[in-house]
Each structure stands twice: as structure tokens, then as C-alpha cells.
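User: Here's a structure from my thesis project, written as C-alpha cells. My advisor, Dr. K., wants to see whether a designed sequence matches the one we expressed. Can you design one independently, without my sequence as a hint?
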């Protein structure tokens, strides 16, 4: 009888995923409250055949070099910028991830963040609860409305397209997108492809849903914020690394743009003394884009299924092919 493959899990996950894994694998879970340290991860990976990880686990060459028994890395995320994909592939290790199942949850959170930022929902709620609501005043708590505005989506993949679809009923003036390649789905959605410069200068709302890659790193720099309208609202639910954060802080402080809503930033968690947290025109969420109960359950299950498939010699539900 062959020993069951050992899978190391860097977070406690849903029972359904655990139960599925336990049927074919010998499961070991990191149950600390903070993310597993690199040293602990390396110690545990030495004799593991599978890794179940999340975005806070950086899987680099140093980690991979000790993980000589690893057959599959399954990340409970659609993003994979925390994985050294080239090195993993070079070692013949398979990669699983969780596309599609989080598209709707992330898109709805993006729309929520856009509205919360532009219509100042958190500021207004705070005022109402802490005595800041004195009397009705014509321009108090006003912000730019979505109706008849131009929205530009940066990165028109699964999530960007879903955001665009969700925004359709808001009576936009124009919906545009910027993407490396033209997306055939755009016509039906009613989104026009524009170049990056046009997107920056013409948009009332800029929504970022692209992946973090060497090409998108610091895409939103000082020059980009300067090109935006002073009334522009900037929303990011992708990765903090696409933004030059000091440049964003400056743009918000000097009124170069109207406001920002961020679900992702650098670093995460954001330290309590970070200048972003002092800005009234910046809404900060703790990376909850995919955090609907249904979606997180699906993500957990898909991650487990990706692992099990490898050991059963079946097709993985979502294998990362690059
Ligand atoms: C996750 C995400 O919460 O899927 C992604 O890429 O950023 C979020 O859905 C996170 O990555 C958990 O690993």
C-alpha cells in the first residue's frame, strides 16, 4: 500500500475542502493566527507532495529548493503574483488557482467600493453616528455621481468585464477599457477600447482590475495621476503593486484627483501610521474583494479539487498554464 500524499495547508479552510482532501491525502494545517513564517513553511514543505496556499505565502526559489517532493501548488486565489511561476514550472510542479468562481463577488465589491468612494458612504455614516449631521445643507456630503459619467476599466479580463456589465444599468455616458489585447466580449458589453492616455484623461471613474505583472507594476505613477481629471475617482481591486503609492497619496493630498477607493495596497495589512489612512478622500478596505461566503467556499473547494485531481491523475479544474 502506498502512503497517502502529504498536503500542507497554510490556513484553516472550510470543512468541505478539508474533508475532500482527507479522502486522498494526509493533511497538515498551519493553525497559527499570523501567516506561516518562511522558515516554518520550508520545514513543512520538505516532505510534502502538495501545498495549499494563499496570496500571503510567497513561494520563491529559496522555498522551492527545499520542497523537492512537491508535485502541485494550489493557491486559493486567482492572482498568482506571489508565486515564482517560472521556477515552479521549471521544477515540473503543477499549479492550480481559482479563476471564475470569484468573478461575481469581486465585481460586486468593486461597484460597492466605487459608490462608497464617490458618494462618501463611510464618511456620511460616520457623521450621522457621531454628531456631524447638523442640518440639511445643499452641498454637504456631495460627491460625483455615476450617472452620465465616463468609466474606464483597466484590465478587461474576467473581473473587468463583469464590473462593466454590473455598471450598465447606471446610465453611463461612456464605458471604455484599456487592455493589452482587444477583447471580443467588449462589443456586446458596449465598452470601447482606448489607449492608456485617453483612459486617463477622459475618465470620471477609473477602475483597476488588471493582474500585477512586470508591465503593470507602478502603472499608476505621478505622471498618470497628473493626467487624470481633478474630479476623477480611482478604484483599485487588483493588486497594490500596480500603483506607485506615494504618488497616489500626493495626488489625493493636492487635489490632483478627487478620491480613491482601495481594496488592495502595499503592504497588506497597511500599517496604522500609513499616510493613506489619514486621507478623508480615500476609502480603504482590507482586501475583501472575493469575501462573499459562497465565493470563499467555492475557492476553498476548487483549491482542494486542484490538488486531488493531480493525485488521481485527473484533469485539474483550473490549472495555470502560462
Ligand atoms: C483572495 C485575491 O482573497 O484571488 C485573488 O487573487 O486577491 C483574493 O480573492 C486572496 O488572494 C486569497 O489568497
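Assistant: Designed independently from the structure alone:
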Amino acid at each position: 500500500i502506498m502512503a497517502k500524499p502529504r498536503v500542507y495547508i497554510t490556513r484553516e479552510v472550510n470543512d468541505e475542502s478539508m474533508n475532500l482532501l482527507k479522502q486522498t491525502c494526509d493533511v497538515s494545517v498551519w493553525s497559527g493566527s499570523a501567516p506561516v513564517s518562511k522558515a516554518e513553511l520550508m520545514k513543512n514543505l520538505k516532505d510534502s507532495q502538495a501545498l495549499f496556499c494563499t496570496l500571503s505565502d510567497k513561494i520563491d526559489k529559496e522555498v522551492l529548493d527545499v520542497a523537492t517532493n512537491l508535485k502541485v501548488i494550489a493557491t486559493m486565489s486567482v492572482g498568482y503574483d506571489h508565486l515564482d511561476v517560472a521556477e515552479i514550472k521549471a521544477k515540473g510542479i503543477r499549479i492550480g488557482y481559482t479563476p471564475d468562481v470569484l468573478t461575481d463577488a469581486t465585481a460586486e465589491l468593486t461597484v460597492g467600493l466605487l459608490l462608497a468612494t464617490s458618494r462618501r458612504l463611510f464618511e456620511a455614516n460616520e457623521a450621522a453616528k457621531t454628531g456631524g449631521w447638523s442640518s440639511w445643507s445643499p452641498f454637504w456630503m456631495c460627491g460625483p455621481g455615476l450617472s452620465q459619467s465616463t468609466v474606464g476599466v483597466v484590465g478587461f479580463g474576467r473581473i473587468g468585464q463583469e464590473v462593466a456589465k454590473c455598471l450598465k444599468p447606471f446610465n453611463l455616458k461612456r464605458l471604455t477599457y484599456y487592455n493589452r489585447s482587444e477583447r471580443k466580449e467588449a462589443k456586446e458589453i458596449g465598452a470601447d477600447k482606448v489607449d492608456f492616455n485617453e483612459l486617463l484623461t477622459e475618465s470620471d471613474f477609473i477602475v483597476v482590475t488588471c493582474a500585477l505583472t512586470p508591465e503593470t507594476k507602478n502603472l499608476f505613477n505621478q505622471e498618470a495621476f497628473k493626467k487624470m481629471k481633478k474630479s476623477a475617482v480611482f478604484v483599485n481591486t487588483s493588486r497594490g503593486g500596480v500603483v506607485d503609492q506615494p504618488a497616489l497619496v500626493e495626488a489625493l493630498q493636492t487635489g490632483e484627483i478627487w478620491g480613491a477607493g482601495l481594496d488592495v495596497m502595499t503592504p497588506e495589512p497597511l500599517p496604522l501610521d500609513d499616510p493613506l489612512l489619514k486621507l478623508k478622500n480615500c476609502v480603504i478596505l482590507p482586501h475583501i474583494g472575493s469575501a462573499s461566503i459562497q465565493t470563499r467556499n467555492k475557492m476553498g473547494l476548487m483549491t482542494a479539487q486542484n490538488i486531488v485531481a493531480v493525485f488521481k491523475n485527473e484533469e485539474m479544474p483550473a490549472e495555470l498554464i502560462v
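When you compare it with your expressed construct, this may help: Residues 6-99+293-311 form a domain with the Rossmann fold fold (CATH 3.40.50.720).
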